[in-house]
Amino acid sequence: MSTCKTLLIVYHSMTGGTRQMAEAAHAGAQAEGGVTVRLLQAAQAGPQDVLSADGYLFASPENLAAISGQLKDFFDRSYYPALDRINGRPYAAMVCAGSDGHNAARQIARIATGWRLRPVAEPLIVCTHAQTPEAILAPKQIAVAQQAACHALGEAMAAGLALGVF
Asked: Please, which residues bridge with residue 74 across strands?
């Protein structure tokens, strides 16, 4: 008898965009069923959460062409306790960006490579086109179609874990 798998979704959000993406992925993963889904802000997540999960979804805004400091802090705090203990586990990434998002996605991929995780989906990048200081700092509203893509990614991650595909 197989045990219930756990999907850990770790995110950081300052203006609400990444939070909406993570919540949509969380809803998708829960809708799939058969998997325990944990949604944690990066500041609340740590090594024990990483070790007790079977798969991961990391979500960050892109800040100055990089992941947020809080998500980086989560990775830093969790790196050594998790090193060589989570090899081969699946992960995916989501980035909420004002203009590009690819550098943040690459940074998550490099960290995941160091953790020896296995990518199971292309990074999901949502571009808000926020370019002025006012637009960058303003609360974000992620479009329904983009939230649906996040929902589908969460659903696919949960299904893959539940079915033992990864």
From this structure: none
Q: What is the per-residue pLDDT for 3? A: 77
- The residues, any chain, with a CB within 8 Å of residue 124's CB and separated by 6 or more, are 21, 92, 93, 94, 95, 149, 150, 153
28-60 pLDDT per residue, tens: 999 998 999 999 999 999 999 999 999 999 999
Q: What is the 3-state secondary structure (H, E, C) of the chain?
A: CCCCEEEEEEECCCCCHHHHHHHHHHHHHHHHCCEEEEEEECCCCCHHHHHCCCEEEEEEECECCECCHHHHHHHHHHHHHHCCCCCCCEEEEEEEECCCCHHHHHHHHHHHHHCCCEECCCCEEEECCCCCHHHHHCCCCCCHHHHHHHHHHHHHHHHHHHHCCC
